[in-house]
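Hey,
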Amino acid sequence: MKKALVTLDLRKDSEKLVQTAIDWAKAFDAQIILLHVELLDSDNKSLDTYSQEDKEKIMMRDENMNKILELEQRLTENGIGFARVIRFGNPQDVILDVAKSENVDLIFMGLNKHSAAYKFLIGSVADLVVKKTDVLVLLIPND
């Protein structure tokens, strides 16, 4: 194994996920692909044309980018090669697409706790990715 995809959910505490990926990359002298999926498409609209909810999402991008840069600094300090991928779209589709295009050996994903009713009605990104990929997936519970 030489390359892993680390899916970032920057709304959650993903310390365990990141540390597990770092430990794995060091053990196998591997590269990490950091993936963050934005749900709001970027375009040339003025901020005045967005709803309040969309404005909040846009403002979160700066905060998210700072978190990503901090993670990249950590990888650099640990001597781990990495690449950053930021995409817009449906998370499970983007994860599957990037895993395939980057030819990764392993996908690291945080696992969010949901009620049984939520899982039954909606499912989770992790469930969908596990079902649709041939790549090994390591699910790490988010704190």
